[in-house]
Specification:
The complex is a heterodimer of chains A (257) and B (352).
Chain A lengths: L5 H11 L6 E3 L4 H11 L6 E3 L4 E2 L21 E2 L2 H9 L5 E4 L3 E2 L5 E2 L2 E2 L8 E2 L6 H7 L2 E5 L25 H5 L6 E6 L3 E5 L6 E6 L5 H6 L6 E8 L5 H11 L10
Parallel strand pairs in A: 1-2, 1-5, 5-10, 10-11, 13-14
Antiparallel strand pairs in A: 3-4, 6-7, 8-9, 11-12, 12-13
Chain B lengths: L18 E2 L11 H9 L12 H8 L5 E4 L9 H9 L5 E5 L4 H8 L3 E6 L12 H8 L4 E4 L2 H13 L3 E4 L6 H4 L4 E4 L6 E6 L5 E9 L5 E2 L7 H7 L2 E9 L2 H6 L13 E4 L17 H10 L3 H13 L4 H7 L2 H18 L9
Parallel strand pairs in B: 2-3, 2-9, 3-4, 4-5, 9-11, 11-12
Antiparallel strand pairs in B: 1-7, 6-8, 7-8, 9-10
Helix pairs in contact in B: 2-3, 3-4, 6-8
The chains are: A alpha/beta (257), B alpha/beta (352).
C-alpha cells in the first residue's frame, strides 16, 4: 500500500462523502481539493460553487481566493455573491465545508476571535465571511481539520457559524431552516458524525494507527462513540495518484501536512 | 379554499412584534426616504465624467464618510483609488468589510478607518492574516459590528431596491447575530422568524471595471460579486476602468452593462488599476508583492517606509507599478492569467 500523509488521508476521506449529482460550495484549500478529487472519482457530476459567484468551473488548478479568476474558469455561469447565497437559502446546495479556530461538541464553529472582550479580543480572526451563511443554509456541513484540545473544545469564545447550537431542535427553534446542519467532521485522527438524539459529536471511524487514547487526549470535551466503529479505509493508490497528479500537482495543500 | 385553489392570505390582524437581537452600533441610516431625497438630486445628465483619481477622491470622499469597495479583496479591487485615499490622508471613515482583504490592508495601513461592518477582514484568504489590520481591531482602533458576506450583499441589495430592510434566514442562534445590529421579526404571512437586515447606503462606493465609456456606462467581465447591488446602493460612485471605450462599444453589448451611467459620479481610466490584485481575463494577482506586504507588516518601521515608498512618495498608480516591475511585470502577470487557460485543455478536467 502506498505511503500517504495526513492531509492526503483527510482529503481522500472527505471526497468519498460527496454524492454524485449534488452541489457543493467550497473555499480554498483542502475542501476544494476534496471536491476536485470527488469529481475525478466518486462524483464526476458534482457541481462546485464558490461564494463570490463561480458556478461549475472547470478548475484548472487550486484557486488562491474564492473570487479569483480560476473559480469561474470555463464555468457554467459567472454570477454573484447574492446568487450563490440565495441558492443556498433556497435549499439547492447539498454540501459545504467550513473551517475554524474552535469547534464544540454540537459542531458550532468559531472563526471570529479568541478572548472575552469583543472590543479588545486577544486574537482577532477574519470573522464569518460566508461561513455563517453556508452553515445556516447548506443541507450537510462538513469540516476538514487537524484535531487537538485547543480546537475541539466546549469553551468556545464566539459562535461564528451555527452547528446544532445546544442540541436537537435548537437550530429550528432559533429560526434556522429545518433539517440541515453538521454532517461529518474529518480530522487527522477520526471521522465523526452527530448522534441522532443529542446531536453531539460522535466517533464513527478511526484512522489507521490511531488509538482511542489518542482521540480522547486530543479532544477537550466528552465524545460519543458509535455502536459500531469502523476503521477508516486509507487512500487507494488510484485516489493518491489522481490527487497528486491532477488535483494538487504543486502540492499547495497536500504539501502542508 | 376558494374554488380556484387554496388561499394563503393572512387572516386576522395580529400585532407583529419585532425584537432587537443584535446589540452593536448600526453605522449607516437605513431609511429609504432619506435615500430617495439624495437620489432625487443626483444628476442623470449624460455628460462626460472623466477625471483623475486625485480630483475624484478629493471631491467625492470626505473625512467621516462611509466607504464600500467593489471586487473581492484580492480580486478586481480599485487599488489605485485606495492608494489615493491613503495619500490624501482621508480619515475617520466607516467601512464595509464584505470580504475586504488587500483593500482593508491598504486603508488600515493608512489609518483611514475608525468603524467597520465586518464580514471578512484582516485575512488574505489562503495567504494568511495581515498583522497591521489585525492590530487595529485587537487594540480597538476600529469599532466593529459583525455581519456576514451574504448579510452585507443583501444589505446592499435592499438599498439597491430603495427599501429599508430585507428579510433573511442567516445568522440565527450565533454570536455573529448578537454582535450585529440586526432585528428579528416574524413573517406576516407564515409567522416564521426572519432577520430584518438593515439596508446599507454607503456614502461612496469605488469599483474597478473592465471597460467604461466617458458617461460611466460600465461593464465587468466574469463574476460581479456584489458590485451591481453596491453601485445602486451607494450615494456616490467612482468607477476606475482598465480601458475607457467609445459609447458604441458599450452599445454593442448592452446586456453586459451592469452599471449604467446615471449611477456614476466619476470615471477614471487606470490600466492595471487593480494591481496587485487579480483582474479576470487581464492579469493575475502579484503573489510576490502581496507576500511582501504581509512580510513588511511584521515590523512597524519597515512597514511605514514601505508605505512611504509605494504610496505617499508616488504621484499615481503607474508610478507605483513602475516601482514594482513596470510593464515587464504586468506582462508576466498577464501571461500567468492567460496561460493556464491553455494548459487546461491538455488535462482531463473535472466536469464543473
Amino acid at each position: 500500500m502506498a505511503e500517504y500523509n495526513r492531509m492526503e488521508l483527510m482529503i481522500c476521506l472527505a471526497a468519498r462523502y460527496l454524492e454524485d449529482g449534488s452541489t457543493v460550495v467550497v473555499g480554498t484549500g483542502a475542501p476544494c481539493a476534496a471536491a476536485m478529487l470527488a469529481q475525478r472519482t466518486v462524483a464526476p457530476n458534482i457541481m462546485i460553487l464558490f461564494e463570490a459567484g463561480g458556478i461549475g468551473p472547470l478548475l484548472p488548478s487550486m484557486p488562491i481566493s474564492v473570487g479569483d479568476s480560476r473559480t469561474f474558469y470555463r464555468a457554467f455561469a459567472a454570477s454573484t455573491m447574492s446568487e450563490i447565497m440565495s441558492t443556498c437559502q433556497r435549499g439547492m446546495v447539498d454540501y459545504t465545508f467550513l473551517g475554524g479556530a474552535q469547534i464544540d461538541m454540537y459542531g458550532n464553529i468559531n472563526s471570529t476571535l479568541i478572548g472575552e472582550d469583543y472590543d479588545r479580543p486577544r486574537v482577532r480572526f477574519p470573522g464569518s465571511g460566508g461561513a455563517n451563511d453556508l452553515a445556516s443554509f447548506c443541507w450537510r456541513i462538513m469540516m476538514i481539520t487537524p484535531q487537538n484540545r485547543m480546537r475541539f473544545t466546549n469553551k468556545i469564545d464566539f459562535i461564528t457559524s451555527p452547528g446544532y447550537l445546544t442540541g436537537r431542535g435548537a437550530r429550528e427553534k432559533a429560526g434556522l431552516p429545518a433539517d440541515c446542519g453538521p454532517h461529518k467532521i474529518i480530522t487527522d485522527l477520526v471521522v465523526m458524525g452527530f448522534e441522532e438524539e443529542s446531536k453531539r459529536m460522535q466517533v464513527e471511524s478511526i484512522h489507521p494507527g490511531i488509538t482511542r487514547e489518542d482521540i480522547i487526549e486530543n479532544t477537550d470535551f466528552e465524545l460519543l462513540w458509535a455502536p459500531e466503529i469502523e476503521n477508516s479505509a486509507p487512500p487507494t493508490d488510484e485516489e493518491l495518484e489522481i490527487l497528486r497528479r491532477d488535483v494538487d500537482p504543486l502540492r499547495y495543500i497536500i504539501g502542508r501536512a | 379554499m376558494s374554488r380556484f385553489g387554496p388561499d394563503y392570505s393572512v387572516h386576522g390582524d395580529q400585532e407583529v412584534a419585532y425584537r432587537k437581537v443584535g446589540h452593536r452600533r448600526l453605522f449607516t441610516d437605513p431609511d429609504a426616504d432619506s435615500a430617495r431625497e439624495h437620489f432625487r438630486s443626483k444628476s442623470r445628465k449624460l455628460v462626460s465624467k472623466v477625471t483623475t483619481a486625485k480630483k475624484a477622491v478629493s471631491r467625492l470622499l470626505k473625512d467621516g464618510d462611509y466607504l464600500a469597495v467593489g471586487g473581492f479583496g484580492s480580486n478586481r479591487i480599485p487599488t489605485a483609488l485606495l492608494h489615493e485615499i491613503v495619500r490624501q490622508g482621508k480619515n475617520n471613515l466607516g467601512f464595509s468589510g464584505h470580504t475586504a482583504t488587500h483593500d482593508l490592508q491598504i486603508l488600515a495601513g493608512g489609518k483611514c478607518i475608525n468603524r467597520c461592518d465586518i464580514a471578512y477582514v484582516i485575512g488574505l484568504e489562503a495567504r494568511g492574516l495581515s498583522p497591521i489590520s489585525r492590530k487595529a481591531f485587537e487594540e480597538g482602533e476600529i469599532e466593529a459590528t459583525e455581519w456576514t458576506n451574504a448579510a452585507l450583499a443583501w444589505r446592499y441589495k435592499a438599498a439597491s431596491m430603495g427599501i429599508s430592510f430585507i428579510p433573511t434566514r442567516n445568522m440565527f442562534g450565533t454570536d455573529t447575530l448578537k454582535y450585529s445590529a440586526a432585528v428579528q421579526l416574524p413573517c406576516p404571512y407564515t409567522g416564521k422568524n426572519y432577520i430584518a437586515l438593515p439596508a446599507l447606503y454607503p456614502d461612496l462606493a469605488i469599483i474597478h471595471v473592465h471597460r467604461c465609456d466617458v458617461y460611466g456606462n460600465a461593464q465587468i467581465d466574469g463574476i460581479t460579486i456584489s458590485d451591481l447591488e453596491l453601485a445602486r446602493a451607494a450615494k456616490r460612485l467612482i468607477i476606475s476602468t482598465e480601458r475607457l471605450v467609445p459609447e458604441s462599444t458599450i452599445r454593442q453589448r448592452p446586456e453586459s452593462t451592469g452599471i449604467p451611467f446615471y449611477l456614476v459620479d466619476a470615471v477614471i481610466e487606470i490600466p492595471y488599476g487593480a494591481y496587485p490584485a487579480n483582474m479576470a481575463y487581464e492579469y493575475f494577482s502579484d503573489e510576490e508583492h502581496l507576500g511582501r506586504w504581509l512580510e513588511v507588516e511584521r515590523d512597524e518601521e519597515q512597514f511605514r517606509s514601505f508605505l512611504q515608498k509605494n504610496i505617499y512618495d508616488v504621484d499615481n498608480h503607474w508610478e507605483y507599478i513602475t516601482l514594482n516591475g513596470g510593464l515587464e511585470r504586468m506582462q508576466q502577470l498577464r501571461a500567468e492569467e492567460l496561460v493556464y487557460r491553455q494548459k487546461m485543455t491538455e488535462h482531463n478536467p473535472g466536469r464543473g
